[in-house]
Amino acid sequence: MDNLKIFSGNANRPLAEKICEYLGIPLGDAVVGRFSDGEISVEFRENVRGMEVFVVQPTSIPANDHLMELLIMMDALRRASAASITAVVPYYAYARQDRKTAPRVPISAKLVANLLTTAGANRLLTMDLHTGQIQGFFNIPVDHLYSAPVTLDYIRRNFTGDLVMVSPDAGGVERARAFAKRLNASLAIIDKRREATAIKAMTLVGNVWGKEAIILDDMITTGATVSLAAELLIRHGARAVHACVTHPVLSPNAVSTLQSSMVQTVAVTDTIPLPPAAAQLDKIRVLSVAPLLGEAIRRIHRRDSVSSLFV
Ligand code: R5P
Q1: Residues 6+ away with beta carbon under 8 Å from 279
Q2: What is the model's pTM?
Q3: Which residue has the higher pLDDT, 277 or 185?
Q4: What residue ranges in the chain does DSSP mark as E strands?
Q5: How many angstroms from the chain centroid is the CA of residue 108?
Q6: Is there an atom of ligand 1 within 6 Å of 173 CB?
């Protein structure tokens, strides 16, 4: 692990610490704070000249602050002569704004890509992007990891009944189909219609009668998708409903929505730290993706294959 340094912003220091533990190296010494007017201050307290540097920073809530911390950290690293900088962004914010869905709206996911590159990123390491095409917004290498090995292992260990994998919208069908195939389970799809941002209708395609349904999604924001999908599945005869979701974005009312919903358990990963109210929920299970990220970093550093992690 010569020449390799890992630093963390304030978005998810516990994840960065676990990655370092996996790799057997100390977390780099950097102080990311605030000036009296709220501007971000950054100071790296160790030499990075000629080093391969990884900065762990999901752009979780507050997304703008965490993004800005990451940009400023990379600017400092570039000016301190780091040989290469990898932005480790396990959760990529603004990913849902990936195309023009109406006249005169931005493509914010592309703007974020431009900002990361301009600030000094030579590579992006990310996980379960909302849409894989975001990789094409970058002209630097993007290593896109999947949390699937961790989630599949959790499902295998905890659910043994007659399972159906459920995609709660058209965008998630590929993921749900892959899971169904790996688990020898059946597949159901929900046709989710939104009006503005609110969910207006959900229609089930497939049979869930008497089965244990597992909703698979990339993120929970308000909790509405998981909660309404659970209701629909129970109405159609599912014996129980569980959810496995990669990024617990969890906007303020999400915890009470999940609490009162019919979903029995919600497994999330630690790409984003849980807000304290969510950590108290009996339904929540946290799966760690730190070993996956750590192994990917090891392989990038050793110039080994990353994709072979997922075969
Ligand atoms: C939508 O396309 C995403 O994959 C999620 O289903 C959605 O962002 C979840 O949001 P919420 O929890 O607010 O329904």
Answers
A1: none
A2: 0.96
A3: 185
A4: 4-8, 30-34, 40-44, 52-56, 84-89, 123-127, 142-145, 163-167, 186-195, 198-205, 212-220, 240-248, 265-269, 284-287
A5: 17
A6: no
Question: Measured from the CB, is residue 128 less than 6 Å from ligand 1?
Answer: no
Strands 198-205 and 186-195: antiparallel
Per-residue pLDDT reduced to its tens digit, 225-253 = 999 999 999 999 999 999 999 999 999 89
* Residue 134 φ then ψ, to 5°: -60, -25
- What is the rounded CA–CA span in Å between residue 34 and residue 8? 15
Count of C-beta atoms within a 10 Å radius of residue 10: 13
229 C-alpha to ligand 1 centroid (Å): 11
What angle do the packed helices 290-301 and 13-23 form, to 10 degrees? 60
Which ligand 1 atom is the nearest neighbour of the CA of 251?
13
What one-letter code names the amino acid at 158?
Answer: N
* Residue spans of beta strands (DSSP E) within 146-283: 163-167, 186-195, 198-205, 212-220, 240-248, 265-269
Does ligand 1 lie within 6 Å of residue 270's CB atom?
no
Q: How many residues belong to the chain?
A: 311
Using the structure block, give the residue that is written with the tokens 């990311």.
32
